[in-house]
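Q: what does this look like with guanosine-5'-diphosphate bound?
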Amino acid sequence: MNITTRRFHVSATRPEDFPRDTRPHVALMGRSNVGKSSLLNTLLGERGLARTSKAPGRTRALNFFLVNERVYFVDLPGYGYARVPDQVREEWKDLVEAYLARPGRPDLALQLLDARHEPTALDRELLDWLEARGMRHEIVLTKIDKLSRNEMTKSVQRAARWIGLPPGRQPLAVSAATGDGIPALWRAIDEVCARRPASSESAPSPGGDAGHKTVRPARTGESGARAAIQGGRYTP
Ligand SMILES: Nc1nc2c(ncn2[C@@H]2O[C@H](COP(=O)(O)OP(=O)(O)O)[C@@H](O)[C@H]2O)c(=O)[nH]1
Ligand SMILES: [Mg+2]
């Protein structure tokens, strides 16, 4: 995608804040501090568009960014951060689950894993949930600039096994710092966005219904997914 415009759209703290028009959504998901906001900024080519932080656990809203007036990028709160008060954790969980419970949302989930670390049980829960729901998703290894070539090869192999990819297939691996791997990630994103009908492209209104009549086809595993969400699959 050749980016002509990108802008912050809304910071959703309640389900009523979620955009209601039918543009495609690309969501960045993963542990707190894995590099979601940094990757979003690198993908969109604007430093500081999404707030990044050295202190984990900062994002408490779903932040929506609109690109070329035609696709939303969504920066989700991270999970797995222990030092969050229970009440805040519950609020996030409800909000994220409310978002994911919407039919067909997001259109593409990017699940980020820090290339330096073993995936965790929460990473596994999220992947299982995405697969159970039949949601289009890509695993993206982050911060590869911090690895040597040799470490990078091992990390990619470990992730491929963890995901259960067929032999010869590899997960995407990127660096928000150097831009490595970003073109390949864009190809995956473009493929999903290209499949969406042009009718989804009229003016958005934050929290308001833009009046689109496009009917989104039901996805497989929708009802099972709801149970999985209620089972706490996305645990902030
Ligand atoms: N070296 C390096 N650091 C990164 C990269 N991506 C993120 N970081 C750093 O990791 C920390 C957390 O990043 P952030 O994007 O805020 O993570 P988030 O909590 O998942 O949104 C920050 O200090 C970033 O500068 C990367 O590709 N390379
Ligand atoms: Mg962030």
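The chain is about 30% helix and 15% strand. Confidence is low (pLDDT under 50) at residues 198-203, 205-236.
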